[in-house]
Amino acid sequence: MAQVNESGRSQSASQHQKAMAERATTLIVWQDASVRWKDGFEVIFKRAALYGQQIVVTDHADRVTSNTMPEMFQYMREDVCRYHDVPEIANAMALHRPDPLVVRAIMNPWARCALEASCMCPSNYNVWVIRHCVKLGGNHRCHRFDQSALTLLTAKLYGEKRYKVEIPEQHKHVRVMRGDRLKTYFQD
């Protein structure tokens, strides 16, 4: 994928992402519509500024090995066994500090993975890899695409210190409420 800038030169996706990260002065925030911020949420922004990232991991998270196809481990040249006890990230909300370490070790490889069919979207992708996430136990029972990639990258970078980039459950300053409906959303 390439874009053409004002001077007519082609710009690769990673260069484009780098340019976007350079424009962010404090934090890059991703969240989907299911995220609800609560009082005291500022602590999450402070932790992101301190540790480089903050990402939701729920108390009931599955292991990343359960919800990641083997092709992604192969693409990233990682041993599945090393990640057996790593809980997957709930990729509903993430804050990233655009410093060189986070950009080079997390954001760039994550974007590169998204552009590579052999990483983000396994060759045997079909409805099966989504529907079988409800089954208990086992490795590679389904695939969580960008969520799987982000989990592997953060686990690789932070290792046993990954707890620093996880939003602690005890804070309860953010909730993920899938399927939530607000009739009065625009009436405040």
User: What is the overall shape?
Assistant: globular
The helix count comes to 7
Helix content: 25-40%
Order of helices and strands: EEHEEHEHEHHHHEE
- The strand line-up of the biggest sheet is 3-6-5-7
Name the poorly predicted regions.
Answer: 1-11
| Oligomeric description of these chains | single chain
Major sheet size, sense and barrel closure = 4 strands, mixed
Distance between the termini: 42 Å
Mean pLDDT: 76
- The fraction of residues assigned to DSSP E strands is 5-15%
How many β strands by DSSP?
8
Derived structural class: alpha+beta
As a whole number of angstroms, the C-alpha radius of gyration is: 17 Å
Organism: Elysia marginata
Protein name: MetK_2 protein
Q: Short summary of the structure?
A:
This is MetK_2 protein. With 188 residues, this protein is α+β, with helices and mostly antiparallel strands.
